[in-house]
Amino acid sequence: MAEPQTRTRIQKKNRTTILDAALDVFSQFGFRGSTLDQIAKAAGLSKPNLLYYFPSKEAIHVELLSCLMDTWLDPLRDLDPNGEPRAEILAYMRRKLEMSRNFPRESRLFANEILQGAPRIMDAIKGELKDLTDEKAAVIQGWMDAGKIAPSHPYHLLFSIWSLTQHYADFDVQVRAVLGNEGDDPFPAAEQYLETLFSKLLAV
């Protein structure tokens, strides 16, 4: 009985190794620019060994995106309709910025997929992502209607949070190059700036 359990542990380890290597490759070269050979080399496995776990490059990519989508939506799920509106929106902005700090490869993977027209996650975008965004936009609109925060377009408010926070992951090289020495860790200043920006936008 011990032998199959050992194989299962090895299989889990190899799948994790492949997915982590693929995340590096896909986030750097995009789906079209990546190959199974590159992923196998990054994983330290032979291509036939890799194909034992995943039948194709697309299968690996879909697995990564499926895992990512749930994580990507968590910060928005945490926006509390019963909380103080300004505090909730600023906390959401900070959570999104923290994701750019901690998960830059995942952010670039998502961005590359969107730039290609989202062929592998369009169902999730039109489904789970849209449903959650509709729900939270309605919450934000309710806060605006109640005069708790300044009126604006709730969807474009969310879009602006997405773009301004994910920029620090998707354009990391540019950010660090332009900032010079300060670019060693741009996130504290970015958080302060974005908090000031959105505080002014939301003020009534």
TrEMBL record:
Pfam families in UniProt: TetR_C_3 (PF08362), TetR_N (PF00440)
Assigned keywords, A-Z: DNA-binding
Domain HTH tetR-type: 12-72
Entry GO MF terms: DNA-binding transcription factor activity; transcription cis-regulatory region binding
Entry's Gene Ontology BP terms: negative regulation of DNA-templated transcription
Keyword rRNA processing attached: no
DNA-binding region(s) in UniProt: 35-54
Entry annotated with the keyword DNA-binding: yes
PANTHER family: HTH-TYPE TRANSCRIPTIONAL REGULATOR RUTR
Protein name: TetR family transcriptional regulator
Species of provenance: Profundibacter amoris
